[in-house]
Write a structure and sequence with these properties.
The protein has 4 helices and 6 strands, in the order H-H-E-E-E-E-E-E-H-H. The protein has 173 residues and is an alpha+beta fold.
């Protein structure tokens, strides 16, 4: 029985379940070369980092305050999704980190970037110029987020109902 135990362990270790393998390797590209793959670029500061509990789910979102737009249109505050770890080519940043982000629009204004699509902010500005100010919209949400008129109308309708009930109560007393 003893000679079978090492053989059994070897078989289990070779053919047993394994998690997905992850590795990320980046080519060193200049900022103007990064624009070929990610047509939206900005320099910003990380305002909000994903919670530790959010990691391990595939992707996370960082919130940036945008200082200058180097390409495309970006609001003054934007969320950027990335893989949840650097082994899967996700960028990692701490609160207050200033960086240049080169991103792609994944649809509906959601920006996505990765480890290979970020660089030093000053290097990007030197290579691409000072950029332009961000668009006037702000708040969390993806770039180009649509204003929610339905919420405004529902809120206004609720106020009208409350005012009507209040006036009706005053008339009866």
């Amino acid at each position: 029985m003893k000679p079978l135990l090492p053989l059994l362990l070897l078989i289990v270790s070779l053919f047993g379940p394994a998690g997905p393998a992850r590795a990320c390797s980046c080519a060193l590209l200049e900022p103007n070369q990064l624009l070929e793959f990610a047509p939206t670029a900005f320099v910003g500061t990380v305002m909000e980092v994903p919670a530790v509990a959010a990691r391990g789910g595939g992707s996370v979102a960082y919130t940036f305050e945008v200082e200058t737009v180097l390409a495309g249109e970006v609001p003054s505050v934007v969320d950027v999704t990335t893989a949840d770890n650097s082994a899967a080519c996700g960028f990692e940043a701490t609160l207050g980190t200033r960086m240049a982000v080169f991103a792609s629009d994944e649809g509906n204004g959601v920006l996505s970037s990765g480890l290979c699509s970020t660089t030093d902010a000053d290097l990007a500005i030197k290579a691409l110029g000072p950029g332009t100010p961000p668009t006037g919209s702000s708040g969390h949400g993806p770039a180009g987020a649509v204003f929610d008129w339905q919420a405004v109308w529902l809120g206004a309708g609720g106020l009208v109902v409350v005012a009507g009930v209040w006036f009706a109560g005053r008339r009866q007393s």
